[in-house]
């Protein structure tokens, strides 16, 4: 039997290197599907769209699938500094708490490289590798904890969590991004938002930090299920996924905040500059979003496990805008949950 599970995840690339325009755009996608029958080949759980900004976005011939050892993919993060892709497991039905590590070839091809096993990392929904300190950070939503692994690139097998930062109880962390040694964490739940942590990355004395509080918090009124986050420091824009559910019907939306660095200076309520939502968008339960970081870039990308599609929107889209293009795999049988964009 092939099981399809909805994994709601988010991830961010590190922001420690200057962006160099080499004119390519590769979109790495994680899928939460897997087979519980050893006699049936497991479905693809990771792959890459080689030219995500091309007119061939929807063409499956532009997509290179890869079968990893994960029992269903979840959070995914590409690091140009490490030349690695890191991916967590959905960890449902079949127990799998490993973080898979993939080498990335010159053309974006993936190859199994290693993994980090730790049974206490139960539900990792956010990942980012920060090369300044050679640390992989993650969000474990099962314990509202930020976890970190030192020198992770070539690990194979069991590894203790290097540090655990337990978030104070009323906050519900989901995804993370890092810029200039400041960590940004998306916050789930009613009237969620973004929590900003200064000084956390440099805290390396102890292995456990309890009741960690953000330096300041940004609140978004009338949000309900904020999860995926993309922080574009080149174009100074933040994007978040959100959705509402009424009965069996869900309605998704993408929240866009321009001039975000100014909004982040002080805590309190923030209001989206633009919102993409409505029946024409196709958004149901978006779980991740990726902004193209290049200057004058055109697109943003959304993984929607509810629709079983990856959507491409113009970055200028607003309201009930139709996607510029959309991608589905295995005729819509695969469930995309995580995105990580390598655009240079």
What descriptors fit this protein?
globular; 29 strands; 344 residues; 46% strand; disordered N terminus; mainly beta; single chain; 5-stranded mixed β-sheet
What does this protein structure show overall?
With 344 residues, this protein is an all-beta fold. It contains 1 helix and 29 strands. The chain has one helix spanning 260-263; strands at 2-3, 25-31, 34-35, 46-49, 63-66, 73-79, 84-89, 99-104, 110-117, 124-130, 135-140, 145-150, 156-158, 163-167, 173-179, 182-187, 193-198, 208-212, 216-219, 229-232, 237-246, 249-258, 268-269, 274-277, 288-291, 299-304, 309-314, 325-327, 336-343. The strands form 7 sheets. Strands 6-7-8-9-13 form a 5-stranded mixed β-sheet, with no helix packed on it. A 5-stranded mixed β-sheet has the order 10-11-12-14-18, with no helix packed on it. It has a 5-stranded mixed β-sheet with strand order 15-16-17-19-23, with no helix packed on it.
Summarize the structure.
With 344 residues, the protein is mostly beta strands.
Secondary structure layout plus pairing:
Blueprint: E1 2-3, E2 25-31, E3 34-35, E4 46-49, E5 63-66, E6 73-79, E7 84-89, E8 99-104, E9 110-117, E10 124-130, E11 135-140, E12 145-150, E13 156-158, E14 163-167, E15 173-179, E16 182-187, E17 193-198, E18 208-212, E19 216-219, E20 229-232, E21 237-246, E22 249-258, H1 260-263, E23 268-269, E24 274-277, E25 288-291, E26 299-304, E27 309-314, E28 325-327, E29 336-343
Parallel strand pairs: 9-13, 14-18, 19-23
Antiparallel strand pairs: 1-3, 2-4, 2-29, 4-5, 6-7, 7-8, 8-9, 10-11, 11-12, 12-14, 15-16, 16-17, 17-19, 20-21, 21-22, 22-24, 25-26, 26-27, 27-28
